[in-house]
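Quick one: structure for this chain?
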Amino acid sequence: MSIVTALNKQISAFEAATPVAPPFPAIADATARAEAAGSRLTPLADRFMLLLGDMGALVLAQLIAGLVAFGVNIQLFNTEFGALGAEELTSRLVRIGFLLMLPVLWWAAKGHYSKRTPFWAEAKEIVKAIALVALVDGFLLYLTKDYFSRLWMLQAWFWALILVPVARIAMRHVLKRYGGWTAPVLLIGSKENTDEAAQVLESEPYLGYEIAGTVDLAELTSETNAVNPGSLLYRAGGQLSAALSLACNGYGARFVVLAPSPEEMARLDHILRALHRARIAFSIIPPVKGIGVMALETGNFFSHDLVMLTLADNLNRPMARLVKRSFDLIVASLALMALSPFFWAVSALIRLDGGPAFFGHRRVGEKGREFLCRKFRTMHVDGDAILKEILESDPLRAAEWARDQKLRDDPRITPVGAFLRKTSLDELPQLLNVIRGEMSLVGPRPVTYPEVLRYGEDAEYYLSAKPGITGLWQVSGRNDTTYLRRVQLDAWYVKNWSLWQDIAIMFKTLPAVLLRQGAC
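Got it. Here's what it folds into:
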C-alpha cells in the first residue's frame, strides 16, 4: 500500500469521525463526482477509439480512390486496369496495408493518441505524415515497376488529407457524447490567472478539457491552513501531496493545471514536488506574456533542473521572408487567373451607377510605407460627403466612428457593395497589392496613419510586416471584437508567425466568411 493511499484512508477515517466544513464546495460532492468520473470511458479506450478512427479514415480514403480509379479507367479510357489480375491486386493491397501503418505509427510517436494538442498543430503533423507516406508509395511503385493506377495512388493520399482530420473531429464528438475524451481539470493558482486559463482551455473544445474546479494556490499552501480545521492541508494531515490528491478526488479531476502569478512562480518548487510524489499529471501555464509564445524554443541541460527559453523571431529571418513572399506570389497569381471572370462580372455591376469599379484607399504598410489598398467600390461616389454630414449631425454615430473607424448600417454603402462586404469579396482586388509586394495574403489588418497611433507600443509589430488580405482579426469575430483585441491579435500574429499559421488562417477564413462571423 502506498503512502498516499494510507494517508487518504486516514483522512477518510478522520472526516468520518470529525465532520468539518469543506474549504471548497466541490469537496462535499466527492462521492457524486467520483461516480460521474467512473461512468466515463477510460483514457485507454479513448486512445483506442482515436486510433481506430484514423485507420478507418485511411482505409476509406483507399476505397474511395480505388472506386474512382476503376470507374475512370473502365468507363472513360477503356484501359486494361479493369482487368487487373488477382495477384497484382493482392500485392497492391498488401502494400497498402503496410503503408497505412506508417502514418499511424508516426502519429502515435508524436503523442496524438495520448496527448491533447490543438487541432491545427495536429493537422500539421497529419499533412507531414501523409505527404511522406505518399512519397514512399510513389518510390516503391517506381522501384518495383508495378502496373498499377497512379490515379488510385494520388487520389488515396489526397482523400486521406481530408478524411483523417474530419474523422478526428467526429470521433472526439462521439467520444464526448458517450462520456469519453473529456478530461476534468483542476486549476490551481491565483484567481486572475485561473480565470484566464479556464477561458483559454474552454476556447479549444477539440482538446476536451473540462474545468472541474479551481483552488487558490495561496490558500492551499499558506502556513495558517495547516492548523485551520477547515483547511485542505489540515484534513490531509499537513501533507501537501495528500492534500492535492484529496482536492483532485473531491473535484473528480484527473489532471492539474498550475496557473501561478509571477510572485507565486518563484515559490512553486514544493508544489511541483508534491504533484510528483502524488503521481498527479499536471501542466504549468507560466506567467510569460508579451513575447511570441509559438516561437519559443526550449532547451535543457544534462543533470540540471533548468529550462532555457529562446525566442525565435521567425518573421525577421531572411529565409522565412523569402518563403512567405514566394507563397504569396504563387497563390495570388493562381487566384487571379481563376477569378478573372468573376472580376469582370462584378466590375460591370458596380459601374452601373456611373462610377469606377475599383477604389483605392491610402493605408500604411511595412516600415511605414504608404500604398493604395485596392478594393471593389462598395460606396456611393459621394460617400465622403455623406460621412461628413452624418458625423456632424449624429453624435452617437460620430462616437462610433471615433471608436471603431466603422459604422454599422452605413448609408454610404450601395446594394451591390453591401453584398460584397458581407461576403468580404470586396477585398479580392487586394490580390493585386500582393503581386506588387505591398501586401501579403495573411497579415495585420491594413490601417491608416491615425489608426497606427492607436496601436501604441504594438505599432512596431504592425510596421514590421506587410498588411494582409486576411488575418487573425478576420477569423476571430471581426467587428464583434474590440479595437484593443484587434491590436493584440495583429501583434500576436507578427510575434508568432510561421507558414503553417498562414495556411491555417487561410483555411479558417472561408468558414468565417461563409458564416458571416462578425461581418459589418
